[in-house]
Amino acid sequence: MGREDAVHRPSTSSYPPNLHHLIFSYGTLKHGFSNHTLLSDLIATHNAAFLGHYTTTIPLPLVCGPFKVPFLLNLPHLPHTTRVSGELYSLSPSALSVIDELEGVSKGHYERLPLNVVEEGGEGEVVEVEAYYAHRSYAEEMWRRSGERGFGCYTEVEAKGYVRRKDRPKGVTFLEHIRTFLNSSDASD
Question: Which of 8, 52, 72, 100 maximizes the CB count within 10 A of its CB?
Fold first, then answer.
């Protein structure tokens, strides 16, 4: 049996039984970043729990788009990519809906898809989770726009210049911002 075949779920026995959606966060929802307050609020109301630091089992492209927003691309095995580091959370169904709304799933910004991860720093068991990937309608363009180079962890360096939603231009959808970004050639975007 190969490593990818030995998939399991981490123990959540110390958490309320409603927390059964496992979500891998690689960007602004992580500790220390702008959207983590949303997860902190969900944790405070027992609708989410932090499970630890995890890494993808395969290399995937992680890039920044408009406003330095991070995007995980569902384009495995591309050159110049690495395994991506992030945080694993267990969510209630209502918390999952909140995060789906933040990620614009119904608007075509991101799509929530399966992903296998392992606990960071170890070669432990593979855990089947979900992550928010850039929507397939623009993922390949995002890869080209990034210079076909990804990074393994969204840090303060990659986040430098991040623009919070409240500070972004009004009257333009995020999908329109993505399209404008993809059609531009300015590397400083």
Answer: 72
CATH of residue 19: 3.10.490.10
Phi first, then psi, for residue 140 (nearest 5°) are -65, -40
Instruction: Please report, in tens digits, the pLDDT of each residue of the chain (189 residues total).
Output: 344 445 555 555 555 667 789 999 999 999 999 999 999 999 999 999 999 999 999 999 999 999 999 999 999 978 889 999 999 999 999 999 999 999 999 999 999 999 999 998 867 789 999 999 999 999 999 999 999 999 999 999 999 999 999 999 999 999 999 999 999 976 554
Q: Which amino acid is at 81?
A: T
* Within a domain: 30: yes
Within a domain: residue 189?
Answer: no
Question: 4, 103, 141, 148: which is the annotated catalytic residue?
Answer: 103
Could you tell me if residue 121 is left (phi over 0), alpha (psi between -120 and 50 degrees) or otherwise beta? left
Determine whether 103 is an active site residue. Answer: yes
Interior angle at CA 55, CA 50 and CA 61, nearest 5: 120
Would residue 188 count as lying in a domain?
no
CB 22 within 8 A of CB 130: yes
Record the pTM.
Answer: 0.89
Count how many domains the chain has: 1
- Domain of 57, in residue numbers: 3-183
